[in-house]
Design goal:
heterotetramer, A: 311 residues, 2-enoyl-CoA Hydratase, Chain A, domain 1, 2 domains, eight-stranded mixed β-sheet, 50% helix, 17% strand, globular, C: 291 residues, alpha/beta, two-stranded antiparallel ribbon, 40% helix, binds zinc ion
Amino acid sequence: MGLRESEAKIASLEASLASLESEDILQKEAIVKQIEEIRQTAYTHMDAWDSVYLARHPKRPKASDYIARLFDDFMELHGDRFYGDDGACQGGLASFHGIPVTVLAQSKGKTLEENMKRNFGMLQPEGYRKALRLAKQAEKFHRPIITLVDTSGAYPGKGAEERGQAEAIAQCLQVFADLKTPVIAVVLSEGGSGGALAFSVADQIMMLEHAIYSVLSPEGFASILWKDEKRAAEAAKVMELRAQDLKRKGVIDTIIKEPLGGAHHDLDYVIAQLDEELLKQLERLMKKKEKTLLSERYEKFRRMGQSYEGM
Amino acid sequence: MGLRESEAKIASLEASLASLESEDILQKEAIVKQIEEIRQTAYTHMDAWDSVYLARHPKRPKASDYIARLFDDFMELHGDRFYGDDGACQGGLASFHGIPVTVLAQSKGKTLEENMKRNFGMLQPEGYRKALRLAKQAEKFHRPIITLVDTSGAYPGKGAEERGQAEAIAQCLQVFADLKTPVIAVVLSEGGSGGALAFSVADQIMMLEHAIYSVLSPEGFASILWKDEKRAAEAAKVMELRAQDLKRKGVIDTIIKEPLGGAHHDLDYVIAQLDEELLKQLERLMKKKEKTLLSERYEKFRRMGQSYEGM
Amino acid sequence: MEQLFKTRKMRLDLFKSRRSSDQKQPIDVPENLFRSCSECKESIPFEDLMHNLYVCPHCGAHLKLTAHERIRQIVDEGSFVEMDKRMTLLEGRTFPGYEEKLERLQKKTGLYEAVVTGTAKLGGIKCALAIMDSNFFMGSMGQIVGEKITRCIEYATKKKLPLIIFCTSGGARMQEGILSLVQMAKTSAALAKHHEAGLLYISYLTHPTTGGVSASFAMLGDIILAEPKCLIGFAGKRVIASTVNEELPADFQTAEFVLEKGFIDRIVERKDSRNVLIQLLRLHERRVSWD
Amino acid sequence: MEQLFKTRKMRLDLFKSRRSSDQKQPIDVPENLFRSCSECKESIPFEDLMHNLYVCPHCGAHLKLTAHERIRQIVDEGSFVEMDKRMTLLEGRTFPGYEEKLERLQKKTGLYEAVVTGTAKLGGIKCALAIMDSNFFMGSMGQIVGEKITRCIEYATKKKLPLIIFCTSGGARMQEGILSLVQMAKTSAALAKHHEAGLLYISYLTHPTTGGVSASFAMLGDIILAEPKCLIGFAGKRVIASTVNEELPADFQTAEFVLEKGFIDRIVERKDSRNVLIQLLRLHERRVSWD
Ligand SMILES: [Zn+2]
Ligand SMILES: [Zn+2]
């Protein structure tokens, strides 16, 4: 039984629990016990497809929730200075434990209305260019950058192609690689394809336990390789898109534990860990000389995928 | 009699000359003499409004004529890498006496069709951003820049405002002020308002004898100050928009002489002078240390308009 | 860390009370005078208007401020020190009627030119400050405006100060011809040096910011703020409408429109402007422990 | 100065004659073979096609080249020295069927991976060169493609060489998962260093340049050239059409379309490509008398 089915089952058990008369104590206890068992089994035996489910869970906290809780005095700044202001990219200044930081977030909405404005967290070229502008501004003022990654991927739209999303993403990759200020990336939920990578060229990459980060969505992967979008669950299992897989491969550095059932069950728990880890890493990175910082960042990405022979 | 009227008169005299029988020798000689007199008077007693006429003369050579004659192997490069490729701004690489240079030109067309493509030499934001891109590229490779100025001004269009022509012009002014490579500007014909200024932040500013360079077109000036566009001729006379006025004010450095009647009467004459002067200045500027070059450029603009009291 | 925040909060509260007390003392205002809102045409007692920072209590319109009223609203009380106050044009006033108009405006406004420059403290942080005044020649930029702003920028660069410019301008001062145009280049060049020095420049756009000022220092801020509904644009609306031969959208060239097009960072209401500026200055204070 | 030009011209003529003689020697081609044009479907004798640089003589379509044919067309004869020729994946071929497919392609193409890297001279100027080959796994970028290109860039940086990359790619190598995605970052980081060193990078886009390659090194050239009509884009046309729920223009994502949108510098026909590259390299030769 996958997590989707388990949660459905729990929901139906909770419904029957509610419908029981107050005197059916034994029956109630049995159901409660059954719910607890399902919960334990489901949440402690999660596979990759379950992580995909949690990463996209409607109740999963969004970037704005983290911004509100992690930072003081967030002042959002707008616009790419070329074409527009992309609602899917929220950027601005904030104070983190008294340290001024630039925050760059991929933001999904919480309501349909907000999601229309935020394009469901899929950035347009303007979003990457806004991030680039604010990143260069952060560099000017030696201000560390914290990025929050949550996007299913770049937006497959006509305008996004016309206005050069390929170029915009490529610029992010090149500029962040050489940005003379510390950068920390946190993969919150979905880290899909080039859109996520554009915000992940960082000195330290953290990832929430049930976030996913992959070359493509499982659906896209199944569709391209097996011509069958419905085999997404199967794809998820071979794609190694979970935090634990990525840590093993050296693509991310730190896993932020989530409470049983996912971040939305206890956001404070996640925030507390993230806050501690961010402060620790920020202080570590801010101590480094610029040259060391940059050469270590270079080496970090340089090392990814070194298993070849026959040169 | 202004130049417009003189040229009209000459044209009608030439027509009657052509209609005369071949035996009317005396009559012919009289007309030829009359033409020559008008020509001499007209071309040697030109006022500002006559310069406006010549600067906009349909036969006046365009930036593309100068590019073809001054440079070897011009390779045009396109695009701003943000939104589009502006036909009103022609930029590219070329060789000038064996020296690689970047050429940035404001280009009017010669036919209606070409003018549609080139928007009559009025740049869109994309044009300024293309120039900025190529200017930064020139800086990367320590390649001198030669700009050719010929625009009636920025384009008063809806899209140009939406895509931030104010920002694009401002960026040109700031970036060129600090660009770490020699820049020479040549005002070819019309240098109108911020659109022209964006291409004129240079170490050396040359101007053709009958080109004009002003805060606004005479028509616009008359319309704003006197609410009467028809007083453009009068405006031209008080605006001090001729090369000689600008040299006196310290806004330009060198005047390139034109043949009697304007550049279109003998382009080779203009090219020969321009070629010599460009080479001389280029060699002079390329010898300078970067720091000297930049501080002299700064001082050049810093000094403009220093007549104040009462600090 | 917590202590730091407490201190900050205390300081902030102090400023707030100081400012509100400041605002409660009407200065030099004849009693019982009314002014009508330029937007909704409602008649408002002058004193009410002043206490409301010259924002119309009926429709929220941000009415025109003099440079000195702006300074009073923004800076720590008594901290403003003016620079180059009496600078005026020595030559080049030859355009018919120009000299007379300048003199008339000087008498009327008490200003010598369309910008007031100097230094001040905001929340205790020293910065260089230039405030344009559209009561003087529609805030148009001639040689003196260009020169004063350039000096202010240069002073900021030399003293490593953050810079704030409140923009309002109808564009270049036509009467000064080409020498007004080149002020765009001069001020932008000075900003290039300030930028190279790693210093903060906040540009604050107010109604209207157009023409040559919009296409130079107004658009070059690290951070660009704007007052609600103010007009921001390069070319004039009427000229554009006749070029494109179509109706322009109602909000064309408003701050809200320009924000959506990606060219300004935030729209800040007048009541928040001092606090926002202080917050920005604080976030850019030079940290001893850093670099 | 004149002498300099004469020498250059002589050199150029020499190269031209060298290349044309080069092209007149058919190499390893079985006689009387025909190939049909992928665009107009005309049948063309293989030898004619080869002499025409694999451009269809009927419709001008620029047909697919192997990496080695591209090298033959571009570089000074005999000047190419390959790097990392036999580099292949040691681990991470676990995806079902992936290992077999790699081996099959290696046998079929004679290549070890989808890119050939090395150094060569063009018009006598040495440069680093990477040429992708879409015959191998649609030119998709996995760890080896990323590693070889990164090494090639790093070599160019170390030896202060200009760099030319001929791009053609269907995108990331899905079978290698996240490690294919991060090659975009790795190659872009290497280019950042090459760029910082003030060196020239020319990106040359050929059919098709899409996905992860388009969103990394393909779009980072100082100068970006493209072959006529080649497909350039990030997202797939079908996906976009279903997202926007409308017909896309016929020329959507063609080189001509992308040129108009401002993202490439020039469209260069295959017959001109060698000369254009040489001209660009010459214009960027390091001048002794300068800096
Ligand atoms: Zn009102
Ligand atoms: Zn064909």
